[in-house]
Amino acid sequence: MTLKLGWKDIGYQLNDRVLEVLEKDLEFTQVMPVQKATIPDFSKNSDVAVEASTGSGKTLAFLIPVFEKLLKLKALDESWSPDEVRALIISPTRELAFQTYNVALKFQARLPEFGIKCLFGKIPDQHEAAKNELNSKGQNILITTPGRLAEIQKDDLQDLKRVEFLVLDEADRLLDSNFQQEVKNIILKLPKQRRTGLFSATLSSQRLDDLIKVGLRNPVIIRLTKENDDWGTKHAVPATLSNFYKIVNCRVEKLVLLANYILANKDLKVIVFFNTCDTVDFYHKLFAQFVKDRNTVFTDYFVGKINGEMKQNKRLTVYKTFTEKQSGVLFATDVIARGIDFENIDSIVQIDLPQDPNFFIHRIGRTARKGREGTALVLVDESEEVYVDYLKQQLVGSLSNLAPTCRV
To answer: Domain span at residue 85?
Structure first.
């Protein structure tokens, strides 16, 4: 049983205004294990590499030290400018950057001296417009994506010479082949005298070693697993998650099972994962009609989709709508599998097994967040049954076979 702790029990005295944001504005009075383990070291003078389950509170584990450090720096620095970036937070996806930005804004009402800016997507076509956007006041904290930051540095529009804090959120994703070189180039251009934090649900030793060589100095390694807290197994799967699989004969059986599953759980919020944008589009169109034909059964039920081929504004609109709904289904690719904190997701269904096994952890981590209960179901073709043994041995530990008559 985990001992419940308050913010005064973490071994570090938080600034009164930061504490007011946590307890009064966010109404967070209980400290999560990852926050207790991370905040003291990262708020002082240590680099950190943190592996903890999705939904365990990692965003506050790095945002609190950022504000704590900036408060102290501003008090000591007579030349402090609202135009200088002092904290840089890099996320692999636009949705995650936007989500982190919204959490950071919660602090701004009580800490108005710090500007916060979130940049993602393509830089405006006109160079002068880009210059005005990037060099405007109010960006002591810059939250962005690797591609956008690479464009910023390429065009020399943003001065990052005063960065004191670097955070890589979903760090293992930032270190894969799509982002690795961009991230390394960014790190090499930043001041060496800074604090760096890596945060992820899955942080491989090889990628961690690669990044330590580039940009970390004797980091404190923090791994929260079942052996040292109640949050999960070797890869920190939430303990409140019920994890199931079912062997199926063909794609048609998956389709029927999904239809029955949605009918049986029409009062819940469900995310269904696929590997390609085309399958997301197909299933979304099919089930939108399925729900429409049963409008007397599905009351105010939302059917949405998110994939990487959609325009950013559309993706954010779907994200916001699904978050606000009490029930519904969202068909998606892995573009939302990492770090996105949807509100009160009851269940995850995987129609396709992820091409990268680590994404299994991230997908199921969209539910059972922050101590809530949740359910995950993966439908496995007979030819892929060996994958189940791999998952049990290497990733998630507990994975139960779903009986044919069982309603999850």
So the answer is: 7-223
- Token pair 């993706």: residue: 315
Is residue 267 a part of any domain in this protein?
yes
List the CATH number of the domain containing 144: 3.40.50.300
Q: Do 219 and 330 belong together in one domain?
A: no
The total of other beta-carbon atoms located within 10 Å of residue 7's CB is: 20
The count of structural domains within the chain is: 2
Of 247, 243, 244, nearest in space to 380 by CA: 247
Is 100 strand, coil or helix?
helix
pLDDT at 371: 72
User: Mutual orientation of helices 33-43 and 58-76 as an angle, nearest 10°?
Assistant: 20
Please check whether residue 102 is in contact with residue 323, taking contact to mean a CB–CB distance below 8 angstroms.
no
Decide: 189 and 165 in contact? Cβ < 8 Å. no
Residue 27 CB partners (closer than 8 Å, separation 6+)? none
Across 249-365, where does the E strand assignment appear? 269-273, 302-306, 328-332, 347-350
pLDDT at 313: 82
Residues 54 and 138 reside in one and the same domain: yes
Residues 258 and 129 reside in one and the same domain = no
In a domain, 88, yes or no: yes
192, 146: one domain? yes
Q: What is the pLDDT of residue 228?
A: 43
Note whether residue 306 is domain-resident: yes
pLDDT average per 10 residues of sequence, the chain (408 residues): 75 95 92 92 91 81 96 89 90 88 93 90 47 57 88 67 92 78 85 90 70 77 61 56 91 94 94 96 96 92 94 87 94 86 88 85 84 89 85 70 53
Three-state SS at 193: coil
Residues 219 and 250 in one domain: no
Asked if 316 and 95 count as a contact pair (C-beta separation under 8 A), the reply is yes
pLDDT score for 401: 81
